[in-house]
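Backbone-to-sequence.
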């Protein structure tokens, strides 16, 4: 990844922000008890018990079974979620964006305040988890299910009137980027993840040349 990729991503998110108010109005106009019930289910995809519980189970299973491959997979998933969360946490503090239920305009920012709409934390860790797990499992059906779940989590934040569209887009971008970095798929300005995390694979290795999660060996 180079500097222009960052510029393109930032520009896209900025352009999408022009749609924030209209999308928020449409979503709230179509909100119902059914959408709220669905949102409650999807919201779990961004809860700590899920995003930290999954890699914890993987790490535990690896330790118990003696599978170093599974241990490393769990470590990569955990590192992806933590890195994404740290980046988004910092972004929230710096941006200080007001949530849609706090402001009538999407362009209300109070940096270094208690306002923390941008980026969406739920979308960030949901997409970090989905991207990392998809890279470990490497099955089309699993990727489809994981990304659908992450997208549902992002939509739930819009339905709940807690985030703008650009918030969840930014969160998804951070999550996907952090996971691809930790998984060794992307490098940033020549920098890659710690070698211990990718010791079982080559950084930047094509997806098809590295074993799937279910085929990991010691």
């Amino acid at each position: 990844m180079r500097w222009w990729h960052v510029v393109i991503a930032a520009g896209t998110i900025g352009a999408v922000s022009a749609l924030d108010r209209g999308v928020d109005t449409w979503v709230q106009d179509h909100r119902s008890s059914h959408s709220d019930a669905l949102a409650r289910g999807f919201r779990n995809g961004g809860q700590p018990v899920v995003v930290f519980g999954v890699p914890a189970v993987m790490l535990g299973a690896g330790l118990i079974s003696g599978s170093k491959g599974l241990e490393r997979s769990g470590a990569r998933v955990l590192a992806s979620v933590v890195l994404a969360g740290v980046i988004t946490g910092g972004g929230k503090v710096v941006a200080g964006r007001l949530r849609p239920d706090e402001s009538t305009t999407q362009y209300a920012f109070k940096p270094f305040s208690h306002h923390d709409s941008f980026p969406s934390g739920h979308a960030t860790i949901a997409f970090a988890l989905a991207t990392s797990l998809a890279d470990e499992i490497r099955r089309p059906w699993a990727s489809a299910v994981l990304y659908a779940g992450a997208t549902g989590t992002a939509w739930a934040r819009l339905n709940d009137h807690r985030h703008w569209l650009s918030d969840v887009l930014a969160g998804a971008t951070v999550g996907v980027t952090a996971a691809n970095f930790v998984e060794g798929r992307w490098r940033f300005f020549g920098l890659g993840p710690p070698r211990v995390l990718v010791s079982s694979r080559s950084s930047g290795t094509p997806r098809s040349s590295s074993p799937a999660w279910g085929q990991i060996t010691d």
